[in-house]
């Protein structure tokens, strides 16, 4: 995992360090590496944070927990951070931060990098993301590999790592050649090809190219008669012909036949132009520059397999070339008995390129959880044959499925995959309705822009706010709601602050040096929420879970809402309080914008 840099504005981290020191001072080696167990207070009445370390330590040392808590408090050197700590219940230690400490930490946060420190151990990271398939429309499943991969890349970059995004396009193999030869057969002018035509051709070609051997067998087994037999035989013959043609197209492609290569490139272009439009709408940093499709490795497969065979690292079994992985029943197959290579072979060659030529020391794959076994075998095989060594970390970030209301993977009514564009269009059109109702004064143009940001932001946020590995149910109404843990709620918090600034006719620069006054509990709570930012960024990187960042943004927005409700800003009692609150608003808005930016969600100034 990426080594976290200790966020030094997070009060929990500071308390953890002080309590650790006290534990060592009080109990020495006997305490071992006992954790300080600092957590936000369950009940804010008792303070801001609590330490739960006394209970497990008591067990370890065979003493009453309240005594342990007492010794810890006795050895604490903490007067600069908190009021006198109190002991409660079985041995909880409660801390209330001094207001002066909170303001000091806020000032440390209030810099251009918002308290985020660059790592002192920068890595070169490959982020395998999006990884769409040529000739296929992007469907709803692709949103996850695209937006999760993009936001994780943003976060790692922010921490000072170098991220190389790789779009591992499915751009090679028989199905694509089937599509190509079908288009040739139909005399389609490839220069006028669009995505709709291309994906239709793909669907037809791949279904025409599936020989129904089982059906034919059944005809024989159940003696279904000559007519049925003839029909099925014709299907099988036709399908075999489609495959044979595709294979000959593949051969031409492999041997570099100029016309075939040109046509194949057109299929890629048509697909990627369409994907590019979607990437732009999704506001992700994925461009053609990040294309590194399966075809990239096509000439590396045979030599790689031969090399592994020669070195005795792979073996032949029933004509296939395989690698056995300890404790796994299935072998990792590198070459089929018919000589064909597989998805896995390409991935192994890609790893070699990524650690060799790209010199990366961490490989992250944001790919559907259903490919878990593939990646487990792949990583183990790559280690076993020495393509990667101990210094390289490989991580599969397996994401769950997007489910429809009935709990099965989201499909259209007729059972087909939902095209991503259709989904985005619908989100935007629903957002336009909501926005028109909320703010009828917006011009058409503005409403369109706002709806686009709100609709897309809502979909992305709903996706990123989940534990990555879990399936989730896709519900437009919930994700577009202006209340609750949603994209629109966060955008609204941001917009509200912009409108305060417009009303007051001020900008950030007007109160950067305002003294921070945190007398109201809502001001303290807002400060505490803000100070979580660097930690949230770090844990997003360490766990590769964007929802940590979402949780931060949501808790900041709710803290802001309650601040806004209780603490008048422009009508504050004194000018000093007004300036302090404007500064709090400003810092909140910068943090929200920054967090949303890392998530890849566009902010807007009005809605
Ligand atoms: N194109 C593949 C699919 O749609 C995903 C590729 C993921 N990346 C990889 N290096 N295998 O299933």
Question: Any key phrases for this structure?
Answer:
single chain; 607 residues; alpha/beta; Gyrase A, domain 2; four-stranded parallel β-sheet; 53% helix; 9% strand; globular; disordered N terminus; binds arginine
Which CATH C-level class of the domain at 11-97 is it?
Answer: Alpha Beta
Cofactors and ligands present? Answer: arginine
Strands of the biggest beta sheet: in what spatial order?
Answer: 1-2-4-3
CATH architecture of the domain at 11-97: 2-Layer Sandwich
Provide a descriptive summary of the structure in words.
By secondary structure, the chain is α/β, with parallel strands linked by helices. Among the domains are: 11-97, Gyrase A, domain 2 (2-Layer Sandwich), CATH 3.30.1360.70; 170-255, no CATH class. The protein contains 21 helices and 13 strands. It has helices at 11-27, 54-61, 65-75, 99-109, 140-158, 174-185, 195-208, 213-221, 226-254, 258-282, 301-310, 343-356, 372-384, 420-438, 444-464, 476-479, 487-504, 521-530, 533-543, 547-566, 575-599; strands at residues 38-40, 49-51, 86-88, 92-95, 124-128, 162-166, 315-317, 320-323, 332-335, 362-368, 393-399, 402-403, 472-473. The strands form four sheets. Strands 1-2-4-3 form a four-stranded antiparallel β-sheet, covered by helices on one side. A four-stranded parallel β-sheet has the order 6-5-10-11, sandwiched between helices. The protein has a three-stranded antiparallel β-sheet with strand order 7-8-9. Helix 6 (174-185) packs across helix 7 (195-208). The protein starts with 10 loop residues before the first helix and ends in an 8-residue tail after the last helix. Arginine binds next to helix 12 and strand 10.
